[in-house]
Amino acid sequence: MSVSESTNGPVSITTKDACVDFPIFDARSRSLKKTVMGLVGGNIDSAAKVPVIAALRDVTLSLDHGARVGLVGHNGAGKSTLLRLLSGIYEPTRGVATIRGRVAPVFDLGVGMDPEISGLENIMVRGLFLGMTRKQMQERVDDIADFTELGDFLRMPLRTYSTGMRVRLALGVVTSIDPEILLLDEGIGAVDAAFLEKSKQRLVELVARSGLLVFASHSDEFLRELCDTAIWMEHGQIKQQGELDEVLRAYKGQHA
Amino acid sequence: MTALAQPDARTWRKAVDDLAGGWRQRQLWGHLGWQDIRQRYRRSLLGPIWITISMAVTAVALGILYAGLFGIELATLLPHVLVGFVVWNFISGCIAEGSEVFIANEGLIKHLPAPLSVHVYRLVWRQLLFFAHNFIVYLVMLLVFPQPLRWTVLAVIPAVVLLALNGAWVALAVGIITTRFRDIVPITQSVVQLMFFMTPIVWIYENLLNSDNPAIAERARLAEFNPFLHFLEIIRRPLLGQDQHLRHWVVVLAITVVGWALTMVVMRRYRSRVSYWV
Is the pLDDT of residue A40 over 60? Predict the structure, then answer.
């Protein structure tokens, strides 16, 4: 886990042979009893070892300022885990990951939102979570309110909102920030068509402001709009890395 | 975000960075700590004043009950119970909530890169706000049962600082361990409950020490091994205008240093594992 702080130098992400292995604790191996008994009883239970899922293996990449990278791959190929590695949430179990710059991860629009507090308060909290200061958020509140078109609803608790209204609010906050490194996960599309067009414009502007973008998506259209290069993930490894069209063709070709 | 130049995630540097980085995000956890409190009483008429009221009711009821049971003057026992309770609430809050601090914040930990210490600072800050609300009861009590306060009452300030410092390391260390071994959560909570009775909150330690029955006096001395007694005494004594004992301060300082040292060892070794474990 890394400190979110602004660095004035150029932003970059480099990893070398980075691996992410998840220990899977079921109720038995997670319990203290098992561990203590194991210590006392000697090597009776050889299955006491925790099974491990290798989510990422030997990921080596180097992204610099200006990079616009799309992530493609099947479900479970390691796209989200890779985004979490690049954000510093998971530190590699083996290998190295070096991240320079303030990271704004947008994996789940709802995280950090509190249903009991008002929309306006949620704007503040979500912004603070994304590494903004109180003052910066106060300056942006009006702009976000305009964008969401929620009007007086912003004073109501979030639990009174429909799903679409929540997405509007979250998108409004997320697209208002000034990220150095922007990590976007797919699934930011559950809005009505007219609003989607409007938010797309804001997304494009957001990406233009950010120093570095990594965007995981299944939508070719979105990828072409925001990215110029791409990484194809398969079974937790980088299968191909290069120009967007080239990677997309290879990825789609494999499907055909 | 600082450079992760070290190939190994397990360095002292990273552990210290986590604490310092979390501290820099004061705006975030400061806001969240307040929000936690307001949130709890959001739809009630009196709001967070309920914290103060419920403390007053509990302390007065227990004060009257135990004053009757032990045959002690209410004017002596009530202030004792009240201050004891205010301090105990802080201690038990830090430990009990500390045992779930990372488990409860799983969503945030998995979605936002923030230092682990942010969650701990938020917890301790929230407990300090509770403490402040409860402290109002003490101030009201001073009007009813005036205490022989002297300048020594100022010792409360460093005492509360020490209390908060210890709350932070306990929550951090217990939080990391319970994230890995979930059985420790109920164990911790039971132990905290038990310690309430073992610690001189509703009973007066010195009365037992000076008991006519030598067996009781002998047993009462065992209470010195209870670390919570020392934390309680460095705050309760100045607030009730009693003489201070150096040994309580020495014990608390020693616990603070040793506790933080052990916690840093745990942080260095397991900090980077928490996001994998939650």
Answer: no
The tens digit of pLDDT for each residue in A91-125 reads: 999 899 999 988 888 887 777 788 888 999 999 98
Is B92's pLDDT higher than 60? Answer: yes
User: Cβ contact (<8 Å) for A35 and B181?
Assistant: yes
Q: Tokens 């607030």 sit at which residue? A: B239
pLDDT above 50 (res B125): yes
Do B35 and A125 lie within an 8 Å CB cutoff? yes
Q: Strand A229-234 relative to strand A237-243: parallel, antiparallel, unpaired?
A: antiparallel
Pick from B32, B110, B180: CB nearest A89: B110
B2 touches chain A (CB under 8 A): yes
Rounded to whole angstroms, how far apart are CA atoms A232 and A245? 12
Q: What is the pTM of this model?
A: 0.88
CA distance A241 to chain B (A): 24
Residue A175: burial class (beta carbons within 10 Å; 0-12, 13-18, 19+): buried
- Residue A48, chain B, CB below 8 Å: the answer is no
Across the interface, of B27, B182, B275, the residue whose CB is closest to A128 is B27
Chain segment A171-213, per-residue pLDDT in tens: 888 888 888 898 988 765 445 566 767 777 888 888 888 889 9
Q: Quick one: which of A47, A73, A45 has its CA closest to A241?
A: A73
SS3 assignment, position B95: helix
Query: Of B21, B113, B183, which is closest to A31 when you measure between CB atoms?
Result: B183
**ipTM summary value:** 0.82
From the list B163, B174, B79, B84, the residue with the least C-alpha distance to B124 is B163
Cβ contact, residue pair A97, B4, below 8 Å: yes
What does each C-alpha distance from B166 to A94, B229, B250, B259 come to in angstroms?
34, 14, 14, 7
- Show residues of chain B in contact with A30, CB under 8 Å: 180-183
A42 pLDDT more than 50: no
